[in-house]
Structure formats: structure tokens, C-alpha cells
């Protein structure tokens, strides 16, 4: 039976100086232009007649470069553009497989504030099957410059309840369970995250809770990732696995003592940047389309200078 193909609407194609560019111009694969290849520039579907005119080499290139796909894009699907993105990734695995892996995943988001609320939003709209949200705080007006799930109508509500309601409107296909509780130690963390595929560290109180999360996840064999803010610098990562360097062996560790009263300043755009960076690694891990970029390392961004630098947690740390 002859394979039926669609032209991938998400694959960039252009004619330039006698060459057909397949992909972003800076890294495009090219085919010499010939009138029989005109359909690559102007059609949506690939006809049997078009296929018959291709050489075996041309056909192999078009399949390998994801110009031909075997599904139809539709604006009715929440994840249509994401499937299009996945159609350009990977090596031989179908984009629907990546999406199915997300749909089968269970992710715990510990803290649904500046980082966690946005991570939950991105994961829900990406099609993750189940979210477990944990927080003990209520929504305040000062949250609204960066915590995307909340509005003026949410003021005074428990964050987990307001987040659950917002996500049910945005992505009703996602199962969202909530826990209104404060995480205090590795035992309370372990009870909550057991059975999850990934854990998001988006809680900063009590001080040092990240180390408890690390120990709990390590004992259960669950990877985790987080980030945070200190003054004008925000930190994405690290992505930790049971084989990673323990967090308490990284910079500061459990011997680090902060002032008892500290209000974290946050610029809205930094929170969006951080959530996007963290969630990208979660999607990489869950889909297996690519390895996490923050594995055993953190990326720091100083907003004032625009400087970004990488901290490798596998190397000896100094203060």
C-alpha cells in the first residue's frame, strides 16, 4: 500500500538562489531546484503523482528532514503547534509518541507561587496527564505581577484551590489534585511525591527545604528540578537524578544560614524566563526527545547585566 503524506506546515521551506531550503536558513538542508519539486513550496498535500516524480534520494531526504508527515494539523487541538514542534525533533520517533509520554506523566509541583504557578500552567497546556500541586499560602495582590494562574478574583483563596480552578478552565483534560499543606521535612515530601515521574522544587520555605526534597526524591528514585531568585539574579536548575551530586554537597549546603526575615524581590519577566527554562527540561525528560540541559548544573541570569553563567555541580564548590 502506498504511504500517504502531508507536507509538514511547520517545516520551513524556501527557494533561494536555485536551491530549496529545508529548515531554518542557518542550518538548512538543500535540494537543487527543479520544476517537479515546485509542490514543496505551494501545496499542502503530497499527491501520488508528486511522489512518483521524486528520486529515491530526494524522497529519503524529505522523510528524514521531516518535510513529509503522516498526520494532519488542526487548529482544534490544544497541542497542535506542539505536535508540529515535535515533528521537527528526534530521530525516527513519531511526534505523537512524545505527546503520549506527556499525557502519561504525573508531575508534582511543590509550591504554586512565582515559579510553580507558571510551571503548572505550561505543563497543563503541554498536555501532561496529571499534576499534583502543593502549597499552604493564600493569594495576595502582590502575587499578581508574576503568578499567572491568579487574578483579583482569587485574592484570599488558597493558592492550590485557585490554581486548580484556573487549570480546569484552561486544560480540562488534565487531572489536578491538590494538597494544602506546608512541607517540613523529607518524610512529608516523600508522602506527597510518591508515584510521580518528576518533582518541581518551587517552594522556598522553610529555608533548606530543597535539601529535604532532594533526599526524599533520591530515596524514591524520582528526578527533580527547581530554581529561584536572589536579588537581581535568578537560577534555573539543577535537574537532579538519584545519581546526581546531592544538593547538600553543592554551594552552601546545609551549613548555609540566611537571615530570618527576607522578602524576595521578583521582576515579572524573570519569573517567566525561569519557568520556561525549568519546564523545558521537564518536557525534554518526559518525552525523551532530548536530555535535560540542566542535569547536574544550574544556569544563572543576572538581569541587570544580562550576563548568564553556568554552575557545574559536579565540580568542587567555593563560596
Automatic annotation (TrEMBL):
Transmembrane segments: none annotated. One of its GO terms (molecular function) is nucleotidyltransferase activity. InterPro entries: ThiF/MoeB/HesA, ThiF_NAD_FAD-bd, Ubiquitin-activating_enz. One of its GO terms (cellular component) is cytoplasm. Pfam families: ThiF. Residues 80-315 form the THIF-type NAD/FAD binding fold domain. It comes from the Bacteria. PANTHER family: ADENYLYLTRANSFERASE AND SULFURTRANSFERASE MOCS3, UBIQUITIN-ACTIVATING ENZYME E1. This is THIF-type NAD/FAD binding fold domain-containing protein. It comes from Deinococcus aquiradiocola. The lineage of its organism: Bacteria, Thermotogati, Deinococcota, Deinococci, Deinococcales.
Amino acid at each position: 500500500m502506498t504511504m500517504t503524506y502531508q507536507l509538514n506546515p511547520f517545516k520551513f521551506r524556501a527557494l533561494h538562489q536555485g536551491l530549496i531550503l529545508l529548515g531554518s536558513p542557518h542550518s538548512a538542508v538543500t535540494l537543487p531546484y527543479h520544476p517537479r519539486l515546485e509542490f514543496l513550496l505551494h501545496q499542502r498535500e503530497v499527491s501520488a503523482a508528486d511522489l512518483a516524480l521524486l528520486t529515491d534520494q530526494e524522497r529519503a531526504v524529505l522523510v528524514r528532514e521531516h518535510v513529509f508527515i503522516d498526520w494532519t494539523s488542526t487548529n482544534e487541538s490544544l497541542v497542535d503547534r506542539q505536535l508540529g514542534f515535535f515533528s521537527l525533533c528526534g530521530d525516527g520517533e513519531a511526534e505523537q509518541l512524545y505527546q503520549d509520554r506527556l499525557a502519561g506523566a504525573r508531575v508534582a509541583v511543590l509550591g504554586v507561587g512565582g515559579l510553580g504557578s507558571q510551571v503548572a500552567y505550561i505543563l497543563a497546556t503541554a498536555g501532561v496527564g496529571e499534576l499534583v500541586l502543593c502549597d499552604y499560602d493564600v493569594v495576595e495582590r502582590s502575587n499578581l505581577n508574576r503568578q499567572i494562574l491568579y487574578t483579583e478574583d482569587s485574592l484570599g483563596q488558597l493558592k492550590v484551590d485557585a490554581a486548580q480552578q484556573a487549570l480546569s478552565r484552561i486544560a480540562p483534560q488534565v487531572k489536578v489534585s491538590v494538597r494544602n499543606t506546608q512541607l517540613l521535612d523529607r518524610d512529608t515530601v516523600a508522602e506527597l511525591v510518591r508515584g510521580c515521574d518528576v518533582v518541581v522544587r518551587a517552594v522556598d520555605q522553610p529555608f533548606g527545604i530543597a535539601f529535604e526534597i532532594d533526599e526524599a526524591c533520591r530515596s524514591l528514585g524520582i528526578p527533580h528540578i527547581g530554581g529561584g531568585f536572589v536579588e537581581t539574579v535568578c537560577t534555573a536548575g539543577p535537574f537532579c537524578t538519584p545519581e546526581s551530586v546531592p544538593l547538600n554537597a553543592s554551594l552552601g549546603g546545609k551549613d548555609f544560614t540566611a537571615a530570618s526575615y527576607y522578602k524576595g524581590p521578583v521582576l515579572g519577566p524573570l519569573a517567566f524566563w525561569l519557568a520556561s527554562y525549568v519546564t523545558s527540561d521537564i518536557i525534554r525528560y518526559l518525552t525523551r526527545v532530548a536530555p535535560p540541559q540542566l542535569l547536574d548544573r544550574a544556569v544563572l541570569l543576572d538581569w541587570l547585566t544580562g550576563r548568564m553563567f553556568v554552575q557545574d555541580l559536579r565540580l568542587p564548590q567555593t563560596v
